[in-house]
Write a structure and sequence with these properties.
Length: 374
C-alpha cells in the first residue's frame, strides 16, 4: 500500500499555504513578505550575547516563556498568564484552531485576509466560510456576525478570525466596531494584530476581559520588532482558556535565544518607536510619489501598501496585453530588476500589488525603477 494512502483524504486534497517567494540572492530588494527592513536593535544583540556567554544552551528553555509573558503583560495589559507564546504566530493559530475546530465546528473569516486561516482550518476538516470585504475593502463585520449567529443542528461556527490592519490591504477597522463585534459574536473572535504596531488601533488590552470574555488577540515579533527569523508570536485571552491551549503546544516550543531576543525587543520601546516612525515616513512618501505616477493606493495602517499600477506599464511588458493585468506586468518587470513584491493572480486581487516598506534608500530605488516603467 502506498504510504500516501495512509494520509487523511482531506489532507491529500488540501492546497497548502504558499508563502512569499524567498531568495538568497543578496542583490534582490525584498519587498514581498512584510519583514522589518532594519536589523535587530543593540539591546537584542546584547541580550543574545549575554545568553550565549552564560553557557546555558544545553538546558531546556522555560516552557511557557515566562519572562516574555511578563514583558508582554507590561506592554499590552492582560496578566502574564493570559498570554500563550509560540513559535511564530502561525504556531499560535495552529494550536488555537486545533483546540476549537472540527468537522462539526467551523470558522468564519474575511476574503481577503491572512490566507493561512482556511488552510489551518482544513487540517481539522473544519468548514470555512469566507466573507468578501466591502467595495471599499473594509471587512464586512455585519455579514460576518450574521454568519456567526446562524444556528443549525449539525454545525456551529466556533471562531471568527481576521487581521486588523488587514492583509493584504492595510485597511484598519475602528476600535468601537471591533469591540462591538466581539461583544455580539456568540463564538470566539480572533483579531490578528500582526501589523497593529504600525497603526493606531489595538484591542489587546481587552482580550479575555470580563467585558469581552470571548475576544482573543494575537501578535508577532516578526514585523515591528525585526525578529521574523526568530519565529515568535503570542495570543492573549482568558487565563482559563490559555491554560487549555497550553495542553496542546509542544513542551518547549520557543527556544532560549528566541525568548531572550523577543523579551529584549519588547522592552526596548524607544528603539521600536523610532523604527516604526522611519517605516511610516517611507510608506507615506512612497504613496505620494506613486500617486504622481498614476497609481491608486489604498490608505494603509501597516508596514506595506496595496496599490494598483496604471495601464501604461503594459507597454513595457514583453507579454501580450491580454496575458497580463497591469499589476501582473508590473510584478514581472520589477522582478527583472531584482525587486521582489507580492502579487496574487486571483479575480479579486489581480489588479493590485502589495509592497512591503523597506528603507528609504530601497523605496527610492523602487521609485526610480517604477518611473522608467510607467
Amino acid at each position: 500500500m502506498n504510504p500516501v494512502d495512509f494520509v487523511h483524504p482531506h489532507i491529500r486534497q488540501l492546497a497548502g499555504y504558499v508563502p512569499g517567494l524567498q531568495t538568497e540572492d543578496p542583490e534582490i530588494i525584498k519587498l514581498n513578505t512584510n519583514e522589518n527592513p532594519f536589523p535587530v536593535s543593540a539591546a537584542v544583540k546584547n541580550a543574545l550575547i549575554a545568553e550565549l556567554q552564560a553557557g546555558q544552551l544545553q538546558k531546556y528553555p522555560n516552557p511557557v516563556s515566562q519572562r516574555l509573558r511578563e514583558a508582554l503583560s507590561k506592554k499590552y495589559g492582560p496578566a502574564p498568564e493570559a498570554f500563550l507564546v509560540g513559535n511564530g504566530s502561525d504556531e499560535i493559530l495552529s494550536i488555537l484552531f486545533r483546540a476549537v475546530l472540527s468537522p462539526e465546528s467551523g470558522i468564519v473569516t474575511a476574503q481577503p485576509t491572512y490566507s493561512l486561516y482556511p488552510v489551518i482550518a482544513a487540517l481539522s476538516n473544519a468548514r470555512c466560510v469566507e466573507i468578501p470585504v466591502k467595495d471599499n475593502w473594509h471587512i464586512d463585520l455585519g455579514v460576518m456576525l450574521e454568519e456567526m449567529q446562524k444556528k443549525t443542528t449539525s454545525m456551529r461556527q466556533a471562531l471568527c478570525a481576521f487581521a486588523n490592519p488587514n492583509a493584504p490591504t492595510g485597511i484598519t477597522e475602528t476600535e468601537a466596531d471591533l469591540l462591538s463585534f466581539a461583544k455580539d459574536n456568540p463564538g470566539l473572535t480572533l483579531i490578528d494584530e500582526a501589523y497593529a504596531d504600525f497603526g493606531n488601533v489595538s484591542v489587546f488590552r481587552y482580550a479575555g476581559s470580563t467585558a469581552y470574555p470571548r475576544l482573543l488577540v494575537s501578535g508577532t515579533a516578526s514585523k515591528a520588532l525585526s525578529l521574523a527569523g526568530q519565529r515568535i508570536g503570542w495570543l492573549a485571552g482568558p487565563v482559563s482558556f490559555i491554560q487549555e491551549l497550553e495542553k496542546i503546544k509542544d513542551s518547549y516550543n520557543v527556544s532560549k535565544l528566541a525568548q531572550v531576543a523577543a523579551c529584549a525587543a519588547v522592552q526596548d520601546s524607544v528603539e521600536e518607536k523610532q523604527r516604526i516612525k522611519l517605516v511610516l515616513e517611507s510608506r507615506d512618501w512612497l504613496i505620494r510619489e506613486l500617486d504622481k505616477l498614476g497609481f491608486t493606493t489604498l490608505p494603509s495602517s501597516a508596514n506595506f501598501i496595496f496599490t494598483k499600477p496604471p495601464v501604461s506599464v503594459l507597454s513595457k511588458s514583453a507579454a501580450a496585453p491580454s496575458e497580463l493585468t497591469p499589476a501582473g506586468a508590473y510584478y514581472d518587470l520589477l522582478l527583472r530588476q531584482k525587486i521582489l513584491v507580492r502579487y496574487w493572480n486571483t479575480p479579486q486581487l489581480k489588479d493590485w500589488i502589495r509592497i512591503t516598506i523597506g528603507t528609504q534608500a530601497q523605496m527610492e530605488t523602487l521609485l526610480r525603477v517604477t518611473t522608467d516603467l510607467v
